[in-house]
């Protein structure tokens, strides 16, 4: 994937290793359903969704997909860590064999969309 520069979210997913694609497709669909007005594209060489600013995005690592969102709080981070997800300041690592924490991500996306509207 290093030599190829995808121009769309679908292009990024298509060029990614097969074992990572299911997680990314689920994230893409979750973002698009939760905030239908968000526009997906490629920024900083990764899929980023924008809605009145940056809404959310994801990137590929060797053994996980990293979901990034600014509205991640310490409380939500603890909830996700208790469910087996590794988190960073604004990221959640989802291993290729893990389920997507849909309820938590939906809540974060809605919160970020509201913050972006201010």
Structure write-up:
With 118 residues, this protein is α+β, with helices and mostly antiparallel strands. It has one domain (9-113): Aspartate Aminotransferase, domain 1, CATH 3.90.1150.200. It contains four helices and six strands, in the order ααββββαββα. It has helices at residues 9-15, 18-34, 74-82, 102-117, and strands spanning 39-43, 46-50, 54-60, 64-68, 86-87, 91-95. The chain has a six-stranded antiparallel β-sheet with strand order 1-2-3-4-6-5. Strand 3 and strand 4 (64-68) form a beta hairpin. The N and C termini lie far apart (37 Å). The mean pLDDT is 96.
CATH 2nd-level architecture: Alpha-Beta Complex
Give the low-pLDDT segments. none
Structural class, by secondary structure, is alpha+beta
How many strands, which pairing sense, and closed or not: the largest β-sheet?
6 strands, antiparallel
Mean pLDDT over the full residue set: 96
Q: Assign the CATH topology.
A: Aspartate Aminotransferase, domain 1
Q: What does the overall shape look like?
A: globular
What's the Cα radius of gyration?
A: 13 Å
CATH class: Alpha Beta
Total of helices: 4
Q: Please give the order of strands in the largest beta sheet.
A: 1-2-3-4-6-5
Secondary structure tally: strands = 6
- N/C terminus separation: 37 Å
């Amino acid at each position: 994937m290093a030599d190829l520069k995808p121009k769309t979210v679908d292009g990024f997913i298509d060029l990614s290793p097969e074992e990572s694609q299911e997680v990314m497709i689920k994230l893409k669909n979750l973002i698009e359903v939760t905030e239908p007005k968000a526009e997906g594209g490629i920024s900083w060489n990764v899929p980023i969704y924008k809605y009145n600013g940056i809404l959310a995005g994801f990137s590929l690592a060797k053994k996980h997909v990293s979901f990034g969102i600014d509205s991640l709080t310490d409380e939500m981070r603890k909830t996700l860590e208790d469910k087996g997800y590794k988190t960073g300041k604004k990221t959640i690592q989802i291993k290729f064999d893990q389920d997507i924490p849909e309820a938590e991500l939906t809540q974060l996306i809605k919160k970020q969309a509201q913050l972006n509207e201010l």
